[in-house]
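Q: I'm building a small set of examples for a reading group on sequence design. Run inverse folding on the following structure and report the sequence directly after it, with nothing in between.
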């Protein structure tokens, strides 16, 4: 995923009210209020004085034209903090066949599309509604059986190249695990993908001390046959790309 236009470097002054942050542009010293597209605690990723990168929107209806995209941590690691980018990053990897466990679902469709023939025999649907529910999965990959995919963004601070999810209590994340487990019981395939937008991670684990309910929901879903994958991304001011599989420690 490449950014539509160059990001602008700034210095973080403070993050507050979950969705807001104040920053100071590196080139002019001008301060502005920016949208923070991350509802988590952002542990280790919201330290005042950190270098950050912002994107700009020309939409006149927006109250805040600038959006916080990246942060440089104390050890120099670039982290993508925009959770709204996560599905685009994973969707791009799915379409390109870069996630081997899921590559077969999209192979025929995209090979035919690239050859100029109508798509057939499967494909990828975004925001697909679960049967008999108002909830939607991030992706539904058509096939026999169909495969339901939920994606979770990981930005939490790490120790010993280990990251955890979530960084705040998330009843919604636990509900998603129960939905995936339900699809497995119905005979479908179900996959959780942790998208780690930072390069200093080798292992992803549930944050049992932060959200024990999620840790239990994850373990229960895995026991039902839900496949749990983690992929790390290379992060630059030009773009973010999934490029390496990571280990998952479900026991935490």
């Amino acid at each position: 995923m490449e950014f539509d236009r160059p990001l602008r470097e700034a210095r973080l002054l403070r993050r507050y009210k979950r969705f807001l942050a104040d920053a100071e542009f590196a080139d002019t010293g001008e301060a502005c209020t920016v949208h923070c597209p991350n509802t988590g605690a952002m542990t280790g990723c919201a330290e005042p004085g950190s270098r950050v990168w912002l994107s700009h929107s020309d939409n006149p209806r927006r109250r805040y034209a600038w959006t916080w995209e990246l942060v440089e941590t104390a050890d120099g690691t670039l982290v993508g903090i925009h959770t709204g980018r996560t599905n685009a990053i994973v969707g791009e990897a799915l379409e390109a066949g870069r996630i081997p466990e899921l590559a077969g679902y999209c192979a025929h469709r995209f090979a035919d599309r690239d050859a100029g023939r109508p798509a057939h025999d499967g494909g990828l649907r975004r925001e697909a509604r679960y049967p008999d529910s108002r909830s939607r999965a991030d992706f539904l990959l058509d096939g026999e059986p169909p495969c339901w995919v939920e994606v979770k963004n990981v930005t939490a601070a790490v120790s010993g190249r280990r990251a955890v999810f979530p960084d705040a209590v998330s009843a919604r994340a636990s509900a998603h695990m129960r939905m995936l487990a339900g699809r497995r019981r119905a005979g479908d395939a179900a996959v959780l993908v942790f998208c780690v937008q930072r390069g200093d991670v080798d292992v992803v684990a549930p944050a049992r001390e932060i959200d024990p309910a999620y840790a239990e929901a994850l373990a229960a879903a895995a026991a039902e046959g839900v496949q749990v994958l983690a992929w790390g991304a290379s992060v630059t001011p030009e773009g973010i790309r999934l490029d390496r599989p990571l280990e998952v420690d479900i026991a935490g």
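Residues 130 and 136 are 6 Å apart (CA to CA).
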